[in-house]
Amino acid sequence: MKLRIPTLTIATFLGAIAFTWPLYFPSNSIAAISHDFLNPTSAKWFALLISFTAIAIIAIEINRGLLDSKTVALLGVLTALVAALRLIGAGAIGVEPIWFLIILAARVFGVRFGFSLGALSLGLSALLTGGIGPWLPFQMIAAAWIGAGAGKLPKRFSGRGELVTLICYGIFAAEFFGALMD
Asked: Domains plus CATH for the chain?
C-alpha cells in the first residue's frame, strides 16, 4: 500500500490557518503574536514555505507519473508569463490580466497545476517587482486557491456555457482575492 500525502489539502489547511489565526486568540495577545510572526523577516519564510509546497506538489505529481516534462516546462513558461503580465497590469485601471491566464490554465490543466501556477507566479512576480513583504504569503496562497478553484470547475459545460461559467468564476475570484487581501 502506497502512502499518499495529501499535499494540496495540507497546504490549503495551513493557508486557512494563516488567514484566520487572529480569531483563535484573545485580543490582548494578538499584538504580541503579530509582532513575533507578522514581520518582514518571518514573511519571507512563510513565502518560502508556500513556494516549497507548490514545488512539492509538482514533484509528487511527476513521481506519480501524472505530470510529464512538457507539462512542467509549460508550468514554468506560464509562471513567467503571469509574472510579466503582473508588471503590465500593475494598477492599470483596476484590471489585473494575471487572473485571466491563471484561471484559463488551471481550467485546462487541473487543480494541482492551478494551485502551483497561482502560488509560483505571484512569488516570481514579487521577486521581479520587489514586492516581497508580509503580504506576499497571503497573496500566494489566495492566488493558489483561485487557481485550484478554476481547476475544480465542472467540465460538463462547453461553448457559451463554459464561457459564462469562467466569467462568473473570474468575477467571484476577483472579489474573493480582494476580500482576503483586505
From this structure: 7-181 (1.10.1760)
